[in-house]
Amino acid sequence: VAYPDKMVALDKLNPGQIPAVYLQYAATDAEVSTVVGGTPATEAQNENIGRTNMSEIHRFQYDEGTKKYKVSLKWPNGPKWEGVSGVDTKWHNWVDNEKKQVTRDNVLIIVANWEMGISEGVTATHKEPIVKLDGKDGHFFYLNQGKVVEGTWSKASTDAPFRFKLDDGTFLKMAPGQTWIELAKAQKYVTVS
């Protein structure tokens, strides 16, 4: 759950100050976890089932030419928002403000077991994903350079950083670059191939 008041109170940075590194990065390219022990994986998908039981699938496809993951999405049972409905099962590129295909160097899928609901103290007309991460743990997938590693994440408290431990017992070391962080509702909705 996002706790805006709590997060503001925890913010100890002065304007212009650089925040501490939140994710664990490799010191060299050779130390990146997917280089050390990754298995080939050029695509990942995560199906999110949200309000009105609408399904939205996010797809991350590795492009060997650019060495980045292209982000796209589709609605297998049709989009349903702001009065729009109908079946549209083709893939749509996720685009930025300049209408360019969104790509990322890394994809980090965190299985967070979220639920639909209304946050405490929020006046809302519809339910949104409620993600409770503090004091929790779960599975994760990390994709980089056409490979994947898996493991378990943990987060001791709201202000504690995530810890990502691989299945072999070592800690995740990510490659530098832009990272798409995806929160999956359950591991059964994630496919990596």
In short:
Helices cover about 5% and strands about 40% of the residues. The chain has helices at about 5-10, 35; strands spanning about 40, 45-50, 55-65, 70-75, 90-95, 105, 105-110, 115, 130, 135-145, 145-155, 165, 180-185, 190.
Q: What is the number of beta strands?
A: 14
Please give the share of residues in helix: under 10%
Low-confidence stretches: none
Structural class: mainly beta
Strand content: 35-45%
Largest sheet: 6 strands, mixed
Distance between the termini: 30 Å
Outline? globular
What does this 3D model show about the protein?
- The chain is mainly beta.
- Helices cover 6% and strands 40% of the residues.
- The chain has two helices and 14 strands; from the N terminus they run ααββββββββββββββ.
- Strands 1, 7, 10, 11, 12 and 13 form a six-stranded mixed β-sheet that branches.
Keywords:
2 helices, mainly beta, 14 strands, about 190 residues
Q: What's the topology here?
A:
Layout: H1 4-10, H2 33-37, E1 39-40, E2 43-49, E3 55-63, E4 68-75, E5 88-93, E6 103-104, E7 106-111, E8 115-117, E9 128-130, E10 136-144, E11 147-155, E12 163-166, E13 179-184, E14 190-192
